[in-house]
Write a structure and sequence with these properties.
The chain is an alpha+beta fold. The chain has two domains: about 80 residues, OB fold (Dihydrolipoamide Acetyltransferase, E2P) (Beta Barrel), CATH 2.40.50; about 160 residues, de novo design (two linked rop proteins). Helix content is about 35%, strand content about 20%. The chain is built from seven helices and nine strands; from the N terminus they run E-E-E-E-E-H-H-H-H-E-E-E-E-H-H-H. The strands form two sheets. It has a five-stranded antiparallel sheet with strand order 3-2-1-4-5. A hairpin with a 4-residue loop joins strand 6 and strand 7. Helix 5 crosses helix 6. The radius of gyration is 19 Å and the shape is globular. The N and C termini lie far apart (about 55 Å). The model has no long low-confidence stretch (mean pLDDT about 90).
Length: about 250
């Protein structure tokens, strides 16, 4: 029987011992898969730490697991998408860390979600090859909201509408407020989220947001997804992302 190769996306890793790692990769057909990686001092591609950074797009050959919950092993791994710009550009790296941490803390990815995998794979290509990536995280999150079936319908009568209730996904007359206990996104920013969904990424640079609106929209979209999937969890890489794009 010939070898089988699948595509996978690195989400994160944790030490397993002094000489090994557990790397969590996201796959189209199997959802999240933990891989056992033995560290070596050799230059073998199979164990090279340079392959296991957040949002690395890789090909994994002969993935095997004894049971659906056991660690995966493999015979070969190599890059599926280059990461030259991603690894050398702090702006691109910060987006990669943010999206990987978002996936880890916001989505129940143990079960496969083909649309989400394809979106993340395409986003990695944009992150590596696009000239302008300052709004890429907004583009990605808006499409995640849509894939999860959370995107609210259009409003026909807006007179009393002030916010989007992120807990229920319904329009509300409650004043906007985003805290641990209050989850109401300003109606203007909810409209921006809907508008992003209809934009081709090439025109995303035309997205007009003030500094405080960028922060509020990003927090709001993450909160929206977490409330309906994983529960509210802090994403530490957000502060780095905010600092790097503070002048956009």
């Amino acid at each position: 029987m010939g070898s089988t190769t699948i595509s996978a996306i690195v989400i994160g890793s944790v030490p397993y011992s002094d000489s090994s790692l557990i790397v969590r990769v996201y796959t189209k057909d199997n959802g999240m898969v933990p891989l056992f990686i033995r560290k070596t001092k050799t230059k073998s591609k199979r164990n090279s730490s340079a392959l296991w950074h957040p949002l690395a797009a890789i090909n994994v050959t002969d993935l095997k697991r004894k049971t659906p919950s056991s660690l995966g092993t493999f015979t070969e791994v190599d890059r599926a998408i280059p990461a030259n710009n991603l690894l050398c550009d702090a702006r691109r790296s910060s987006v990669a860390f943010f999206l990987a941490e978002f996936m880890d803390k916001s989505i129940d990815v143990d079960a496969p979600m083909e649309d989400l995998f394809v979106l993340l794979w395409d986003t990695i290509k944009l992150l590596e090859f696009s000239e302008e990536i300052s709004n890429l995280h907004f583009y990605f999150l808006a499409h995640v909201v849509d894939i999860l079936g959370l995107m609210p319908s259009d409003i026909h009568e807006e007179n009393l509408i002030q916010s989007l209730n992120l807990s229920s996904g319904e329009w509300s007359s409650t004043p906007p407020s985003l805290t641990l206990t209050s989850h109401f996104l300003p109606v203007k920013l909810a409209h921006k989220m809907r508008a992003i969904l209809g934009m081709n990424f090439d025109i995303m640079r035309s997205l007009s947001l003030k500094k405080h609106e960028r922060k509020e929209l990003l927090l709001g979209m993450v909160m929206f997804i977490q409330l309906h999937h994983a529960g509210l969890k802090e994403i530490k890489s957000y502060e780095v992302l905010e600092t790097i794009f503070s002048d956009e």
